[in-house]
Amino acid sequence: MHDTNLNERQKQILSLLKQKGKASRQYLANQSLSKDGVSRVTIIRDLNYLIDCNLVVAEGKGKSTVYRLAEANQSLTYVDLSKYFETETESRQINREYNKNIYPQLKNLLSKTDIELWEKSKRVFKEAKEKLDPSIYKRELERFVIELSWKSSQIEGNTYSLIETETLIKQNIKARGHSEDEAVMILNHKKAFEVILEKKDSFKKLELSDVVQLHQVLTKGLVTSGIRSQKVKISGTQYEPLSSKHELEEELRKLVNHVNDSKYPPEKALITATLLAYIQPFADGNKRTSRMLSNAILIAFDYFPLSYRNIDVNEYRSSMIVFYETGNMYNLKRLFMKQLQFAIENYFK
């Protein structure tokens, strides 16, 4: 299970455990009762749900039972997005500079339950390719590309609708009332996915050139390609990425090496989807490149790619900002796993 629908009490329990470290049922019940007026039985039910979601661990038995957050990795501890952003941008206590020592915490990011779901996706994807009629498989792949191109572009501010995107990709008919750049962005996603399929095996072991070339395909006709040499600002945060071209290339190489050294492909993909956007090596198109490169890794190892079809754009952006400012990946990982569940349920049936 994954925490896609936590109620306010459950969020409060996680916040209390984050503050206290370990706590008894009675303590958590008293704290919650004082604010929400709910019963001890309800708190126990909430705790059991959080345990099922792999968010909380129980230690001991009976009245001596205490609870703690399940994640020992500090980069995966619970962060309540709504509470985090109650503090204005200028007032938040954050890491303003890029953290060059972030890689040691980017290990063992996926739980046993997460890995089981990824392995299920691999089996489902394999069975679909083997059992589906080739024409149906091709049509499903086209549907996936359309929805990925639409949503990934929407995250970047593109205003094409899903229907307009389908018409553009299938018939090359541009929608009225939209800029040429919006059509180019969507078609570039389609082309990038074609490159990913054509060069599938090359993404099993990344090279710096793979990252740069995929970015070039995604941003062709929109921005200057190549690693930037000027400073960039990110809306909604005081975090400032590196500005030196030499340092950016050095950090990009470190990312490539870390991804290659990581053993489990979905973890490689999660790290790529997060860190490439954090480094911001290009003048523009960093997040879309991170999403597509992450998918390239998944496809290379025969896992389900992610379309981001039902992701909440503001939640995604907010989760990314939390990572920029704190190094906390909890919400990004949660969205990553939620998109995997969506992919299993909706594609290649």
From TrEMBL:
Keywords, alphabetical: ATP-binding, Nucleotide-binding, Transcription, Transcription regulation
Domain Fido as annotated: residue spans: 206-338
Positions with a binding annotation for ATP: 284-291
Site (Important for autoinhibition of adenylyltransferase activity): 156
GO molecular function: ATP binding; DNA-binding transcription factor activity
InterPro entries named in the record: DeoR_HTH (IPR001034), Fido (IPR003812), Fido-like_dom_sf (IPR036597), Fido_containing (IPR040198), WH-like_DNA-bd_sf (IPR036388), WH_DNA-bd_sf (IPR036390)
Top-rank taxon, per record: Bacteria
Pfam families hit by this protein: Fic, HTH_DeoR
UniProt keyword Nucleotide-binding present: yes
Name recorded for this polypeptide: Cell filamentation protein Fic
